[in-house]
Design goal:
Radius of gyration: 18 Å
Strand content: over 45%
Order of helices and strands: HEEEEEEEEEE
InterPro entries: DUF6265
Number of strands: 10
CATH topology: Lipocalin
Helix content: under 10%
Pfam family, one: DUF6265
Protein name: DUF6265 domain-containing protein
Shape: globular
Structural class: mainly beta
Largest sheet: 10 strands, antiparallel, barrel
Keywords: Signal
CATH class: Mainly Beta
Length: about 160
């Protein structure tokens, strides 16, 4: 019986982690990385999520950061924005963002922000704590973010395609 319980526990752990695209930093230190490692993110991207159109725009690296913005449009109206920053500091990278309503009133307090330290960087992927960006091709990226709501955490996938008129 003990062997069966351990086997079932292993199967549960295996399948509950299968398909997960995000990582946790835990007590580890962020690895060495530079903005050059993720310069492929630069560009204008569009996709669909949360029942609407999502848009991300990322500037090329300049100085010690990359500047980004996010917008969700549902039923022809902007739902919310994010101002984002990928920053080089202490020999590694960090992803920061602030949320804004459609009228630019902020979600976070004035001096607060969401921050995701770097966990791992690969040629076509960058893993921040609870937030992952993967390059599928030069014209497609996927982002995965762990969103918590009332104690429940869920990994959400965003598929983006390079936008051009």
């Amino acid at each position: 019986m003990k062997k069966l319980s351990l086997s079932l526990l292993f199967v549960f752990i295996y399948f509950s982690s299968f398909g997960q695209n995000t990582l946790k930093l835990g007590d580890n230190k962020s690895p060495k990385a530079t903005l050059a490692d993720i310069a492929w993110l630069s560009g204008h991207w569009r996709g669909e999520a949360f029942g609407g159109i999502t848009e991300e725009i990322w500037s090329p690296p300049l100085g010690d950061s990359m500047m980004g913005s996010f917008k969700l449009v549902s039923e022809g109206k902007t739902s919310f924005y994010e101002i984002c920053q990928l920053v080089e500091e202490n020999g590694s990278l960090s992803f920061r963002l602030k949320h804004f309503n459609s009228d630019l009133t902020g979600w976070e307090e004035k001096n607060e922000r969401e921050e995701f330290p770097l966990v791992k960087v690969e040629k076509n992927a960058v893993y921040f704590d609870g937030f992952t960006i993967k390059r599928i091709s030069n014209n497609e990226i996927h982002m995965y973010v762990v969103i918590s709501d009332e104690g429940e955490a869920e990994e959400v996938e965003f598929k983006y395609f390079r936008f051009s008129k």
